[in-house]
Amino acid sequence: MKECSGKSAGEQKKIILRLKEILGAQKRDYLLAKIVSSALEEMKKRAKFEITFAREHDLAMRARLEKKLAECLGASEDADIKINPSIIGGFVAATDGYRMDASIKGQIEKLKKLKM
């Protein structure tokens, strides 16, 4: 299913429908669910994520955090690292569908919302 990576949702749908036709013609359409779920798992493993820090950190600490977050987010351990001093401290980790805000700025904003 490497053909699906980097394709739009419409293009991916066409590829899957064509695969369904081929498997159906060969009386093996029961394999489609397994193929698609395996492909989704592989895509998830390759999913990139981003970590934003308030300041630079040493490589050992970054590597430990990348590994833990990759496990939690189901992504590859190869994160894009960004620096944004406005988050004050902590970090923000994000994938395409999930955002984990462990920054000081984020915690202050949550407290402000609770106070209102």
Give a written overview of the molecule.
- The structure is a single chain.
- By secondary structure, the chain is α+β, with helices and mostly antiparallel strands.
- The protein folds into 2 domains: 7-45, no CATH class; 48-115, no CATH class.
- Helices cover 51% and strands 16% of the residues.
- The chain contains 4 helices and 4 strands.
- The chain has a 4-stranded mixed beta sheet with strand order 2-1-3-4.
- The longest helix has 17 residues, at 9-25.
- It is elongated.
- The termini are far apart.
- The relative contact order is 0.13.
- The model has no long low-confidence stretch (mean pLDDT 84).
The largest beta-sheet arranges its strands as: 2-1-3-4
Largest sheet: 4 strands, mixed
Please trace the helix and strand order, writing H or E for each element: HHEHEEEH
Gap between N and C termini: 49 Å
Number of domains: 2
Oligomeric description of these chains = single chain
SS field, number of helical segments: 4
